[in-house]
Structure formats: C-alpha cells, structure tokens
Amino acid sequence: MGIGIALLALLGIGLVVSVFDDDDDSASTPSEPEGVVRNGAEGDDLIEGTAGTDLLSGGEGDDTLEGGASSDTLQGGAGDDLLEGNNGADRLLGEADDDVIVAGGGEDTASGGSGNDFVQGRGGNDTLNGSLGTDWVEGNDGDDSVNGGFGTDTLLGGDGADTLNGGVNNDLLIGGTVPGTPLSADDLEALRDGDESLASILNVANGAFIALPDDDAADVLNGGDGDDSLVLGAGDTGTGGTGEDTFALLAETATSENGPSTITDFNGTEDGLIVLLEQNEEEEEEDPVTIDVTNEDGNAIISVNGQPISILVGAAGQIESGDISTDNGIIVGFLDPTG
C-alpha cells in the first residue's frame, strides 16, 4: 500500500478515486458510504460529495464543489470557485482567485485564499478566514471566529457571541449583520460568476448608508493594524488596535438587557466616535436624541437619552459630547467580484 493510500485509509476516506479530464465534468455518488477522492482538471467542474468523508479538489477552472453529509475537505484550486459545505465539520479552502465559500451546518473551517473572497458561515461555531485579498467574511448563526487577514476586509459576526479579528489594513467589523443575508443558492452562483455584486444582490447602492440591527449577543471585535471601523452593539467589546480607528455605537442598545458596549483603547486624539440612531420609517421626524458624556472611575461613559450605551476604558476627559457625530447608518463597501 502506497503512502498516499495509507493516509487516506487513516483518514477514513475510501478508495473511490475520480480524476477528471480537461472538459467541464460532473461527478456524484451520494450513496458511497466510505467517502471518495475526486479531483477536477482544467474545466469548470461540478463535484459532489457523498455520505462518507470526502476529499474534493477542483483544480483549474471555475468549479462548484458540494460537500456531503460527513466531514469533508473541499479545495477550490485555481479559478473562481463555489464551495458549499454540508452537515459535517467541513474544511473549505478557496485557494487561488476570487471564491465564494459557504460553510454548512457543522463546526466548519473555511479560508478564502489569495483572491477577493466571499466567506460565509451558516449553522455551527465556525472558524472563517479571509486571508490575502479584499474579503467579505460573515459568521451568521453560532459563536464564530471571523478573521480578515491582509486585505481591506468586511467582517460580520451574525447571530451568536462572535470574535472578529481584522488583521492588517483598514477593516470594517460589525458584530451583527446586514439585512438580506444569508444569500440564496442562485445569489451565490451569481456572485461567483460575476453576474452581480453583493450590493446589487442586497439591493443597496455600493457605498450607501445601511441601518444595522443589533444581534443581542456579546461579541468581541479586534481591529488590529490599520484605520479600522468597529460597529458595537449591546455587550460588545471593541479594541481598535493601532491606527486611527472609528467606533460606531448602535443607539438601540440603550434599552438592551446586555448593557453597554466596552471600548478598551479609545484615544481621543486619534480615534473617532459615531452614534448610529434608530430609524423609524413610519415617522417623518425623529424624536429628539440627547447624547451625554460623563466621567467615572477614569472611564468615559457615553449615554443616549440618559441610558449608557458604551464605556470607554481609561478615556475620562478625552472626549466631550460635541466630539461625537451621529448618523442613521454606516457606509459598507460591498464585495464586487467583477471589479
């Protein structure tokens, strides 16, 4: 038995091996209990997993890889690939070019690779990585680890108590999500094929202001290097890191049971603060909003209409109410696969 075959046996992967030629091929054996190894070639391949533990590799071309019911490994290879996990604890690797990666219902690990990637979790406590390009990485359900990498990334925690790490460059970190996600299967294909941008799918203008709901969970947001923007809801903890960072506070958290957010490293000479007001489409005029700053135990406390929404640790005396701007949403730069 060769070394490669022995390794596959140890992994519990059966020796049903498929190697495609250079055409646009497809393969599906859903009932194979031992799992399969399937390798695409230069064409645009459709490769589906089985009930077993599968290893699916796209190779060159714009491939579609779909995991089966067990814990699978999907490798996109070169080309703009679409990778979809299923119910197991899957490992999804986009690798080269601009990929669309969607984890399944298990506790998955997904990484974009060198291109500008869209990486999205579904159920489970996932680890999601953008890597090198300008990426959109979104957790959705579960307590996720959402990581940007080296590009100018947009990170969203979704529901659950998530941890977001921006990494290098100027990132946008949102503990919750934006309306309209997760995407449908048709939308995912349109995004991968470059037929539509994420902005057009969600029916908003690229660079537009978007009202953001709070996810009512305590998230941890770490900006890292660069001039980052962190959107904090109730109970969230934000650390900007190095650079001139902007902290956006959701005003609706004033009535939340989770209490105010916490900013650990606010610097009044470098960082900015925005309060995102609630929008009421049924009223032409908003109720008046009062924003106050008080100092207590060395901290600055930001309040909306008398209710604390954020504690700035060690920042007493560094900010006044007149330094805080307000808006009804935040500018989100959407991933454009055609760009």
Automatic annotation (TrEMBL):
Compartments it resides in: Secreted
Record GO terms (molecular function): calcium ion binding
Main location: secreted
Sorted UniProt keywords: Secreted
Listed Gly residues bias regions: 103-115
GO cellular component: extracellular region
InterPro entries per record: Hemolysin-typ_Ca-bd_CS, Hemolysn_Ca-bd, RTX_toxin/Mannuronan_C5-epim, Serralysin-like_metalloprot_C
Region annotation Disordered: where it falls in the sequence: 23-90, 102-142
PROSITE patterns linked to this entry: HEMOLYSIN_CALCIUM (PS00330)
One Pfam family, short name: HemolysinCabind
Protein name listed in UniProt: Type I secretion protein
Source organism per UniProt: Tateyamaria omphalii
